[in-house]
Write a structure and sequence with these properties.
Length: 423
C-alpha cells in the first residue's frame, strides 16, 4: 500500500469525525512550525551601547581690538516744527500751499483779508501827523518866547526905574499924585507881563514833553497797526516741507486754530531706538567723547548728535539722534543704518551659528563640548568672513576652538568630532 492510500485510510468516514481530524492536523502542524522557529533562532543576548560622535566645525578664538557695530532702523524726523497761527480774527483770502509742498523762508503761505487793518494804519498815520504838527507849534512858540525875553525884561527894568524917579519927585512935591499913580500902574503892568513871560518859558518845555509823548505814542500805535497788517500774511519762518494745511479761503482765523504746519529742513535728524543690550556702550561713548558714526545702506554718513531717554506708552528706552546728510528728504523715511561704535579690546569674532540662546558658546576640549557664558558686544561684516558676532568672555583664552555648528542637543560633555582644523 502506497503513502497516498495510507493517508486516505486514516481519514474518518464520518463527516463530524473528518472535521475534527482536519482541525487537529492543522493545530499540530502550527505547533511543530513554532517549535522549529524557536529552536533554530539566534540567542537574545544584551546589545552593546556605542556613544555617537557629532560632527562639528570649529574656529580658533582670537582676542582682538575691534570696532563693534549694530544694525538698526532709523526714522527721519524734524526737531523743529512750527504750527503757524494768526493773532488776528479775519477772513482767509487765499491759501498758496498744499501739504507736501517745499517752501523757502519768507514765502507767503496764507493771506488774510487786510482791508480793516489798512484802514487802521491810515487812521494811525493821521493821528501821528496831527500830534507832530502840535509839537512843532509848541516848539515854535517856545522859540518866540525865548526871543522876546530881552524885550520883556527891558520894559520891566525901565518901568521900575521910572517908578523910582517919580517917587523921588513926589517926595519933593515936584509932581502930582495922579501922575505918580499913572507911573505905578505902568510899572505894575510891565511887571505882570514879565512874570507871565517867565511863566510861559517854564511851562512850554513841559507842554513840549507832553506833545513829544503823544507823538511817540502815535508812532507806536502806527507801528502796531503796521504789524497787524503784516500779520495778515502768514509767512514761512524757515525753509522746509509743509506738513499740514488746516484752512481754506473763506475760513476765519482764530487765536487758537493752527493754519499751517511746517518743518524746519535744517533740523532734520534720524532717530534710532538703541537696543537695550547696546545702551551702555552708547552712553559710555558719549561720556568719553568717542565718535559714533552711522552708515546708511547707500553709503551715506550720519553724524551723531545726542542721546535722549524717552518714556512712551508701553515702552521705555534710549534714543540716539544723527544728523541727516541731505536736505529735501521726505519726513518719515526709514533708513537701514549700521552704527559704528568705538573700538574695544579682547573681543572675539564668531559666526552667528556659534551663538546659543543669545548668551552662550561651546568650545571643543578633548572631543567634548565645554559651555561658556558670553556677552554680545556687537557685530561686524567683512569681505573675508562675512557677517560675524562680536563677543566677550573672560573665560575664553586665545586659540580656544569654538564650534561654528548649530547642534540641536548641544550640552557640556557631548562627544563631538571636529571636521575642520579651524582658522
Amino acid at each position: 500500500m502506497n503513502l497516498k492510500d495510507k493517508l486516505h485510510s486514516m481519514i474518518p468516514t464520518q463527516p463530524r469525525n473528518r472535521q475534527l481530524f482536519f482541525t487537529a492536523t492543522i493545530i499540530g502542524v502550527a505547533l511543530l512550525t513554532s517549535a522549529s522557529i524557536f529552536a533554530t533562532g539566534p540567542s537574545a543576548g544584551p546589545a552593546k551601547d556605542v556613544e555617537k560622535a557629532w560632527p562639528v566645525s570649529v574656529t580658533s578664538a582670537k582676542l582682538q581690538e575691534l570696532h563693534p557695530s549694530v544694525s538698526v532702523f532709523g526714522k527721519l524726523e524734524a526737531s523743529r516744527i512750527a504750527r503757524l497761527r494768526s493773532d488776528l480774527v479775519a477772513r482767509v483770502s487765499a491759501v498758496y500751499v498744499h501739504e507736501g509742498d517745499w517752501v523757502n523762508q519768507g514765502d507767503i503761505l496764507v493771506e488774510l483779508n487786510n482791508r480793516e487793518t489798512q484802514l487802521v494804519v491810515l487812521e494811525r498815520q493821521a493821528d501821528l501827523k496831527q500830534h507832530t504838527a502840535n509839537l512843532s507849534s509848541m516848539r515854535s512858540q517856545l522859540e518866540l518866547e525865548q526871543q522876546s525875553t530881552q524885550h520883556f525884561q527891558s520894559r520891566f527894568e525901565v518901568a521900575q526905574a521910572k517908578l523910582t524917579r517919580h517917587r523921588d519927585l513926589m517926595e519933593k512935591r515936584l509932581i502930582s499924585k495922579s501922575l505918580l499913580d499913572e507911573v505905578v500902574s505902568q510899572s505894575s503892568q510891565a511887571s505882570i507881563e514879565y512874570r507871565n513871560h517867565v511863566r510861559e518859558l517854564t511851562i512850554l518845555p513841559n507842554q513840549i514833553s507832553a506833545h513829544e509823548a503823544q507823538v511817540a505814542k502815535a508812532q507806536i500805535l502806527l507801528e502796531q497797526a503796521k504789524l497787524d497788517l503784516a500779520k495778515t500774511a502768514i509767512i514761512a519762518p524757515f525753509a522746509g516741507p509743509v506738513l499740514a494745511v488746516h484752512t481754506a479761503p473763506g475760513d476765519h482765523s482764530n487765536l487758537s486754530v493752527v493754519l499751517v504746519e511746517i518743518a524746519d529742513a535744517s533740523s532734520f535728524e534720524v532717530r534710532i531706538q538703541v537696543p537695550d543690550s547696546y545702551a551702555r556702550q552708547f552712553q559710555q561713548a558719549k561720556q568719553l567723547n568717542h565718535s559714533i558714526t552711522a552708515i546708511g545702506d547707500q553709503g551715506q554718513i550720519f553724524t551723531f548728535l545726542r542721546l535722549a531717554g524717552h518714556v512712551r506708552t508701553g515702552q521705555t528706552g534710549l534714543d540716539a539722534f544723527f544728523k541727516s546728510p541731505q536736505n529735501g528728504q521726505t519726513l518719515g523715511r526709514v533708513f537701514n543704518l549700521s552704527i559704528q561704535l568705538p573700538a574695544q579690546n579682547s573681543l572675539i569674532a564668531v559666526p552667528v551659528q556659534s551663538i546659543y540662546a543669545n548668551n552662550r558658546v561651546y568650545a571643543v576640549r578633548d572631543n567634548r563640548l565645554v559651555s561658556y557664558q558670553i556677552q554680545r558686544v556687537g557685530e561686524r561684516e567683512t569681505v573675508e568672513n562675512g557677517y560675524q558676532i562680536l563677543i566677550r568672555s573672560d573665560a575664553i583664552i586665545e586659540g580656544e576652538k569654538i564650534i561654528t555648528t548649530q547642534l540641536p542637543r548641544a550640552i557640556t560633555g557631548l562627544l563631538v568630532e571636529v571636521v575642520n582644523q579651524g582658522s
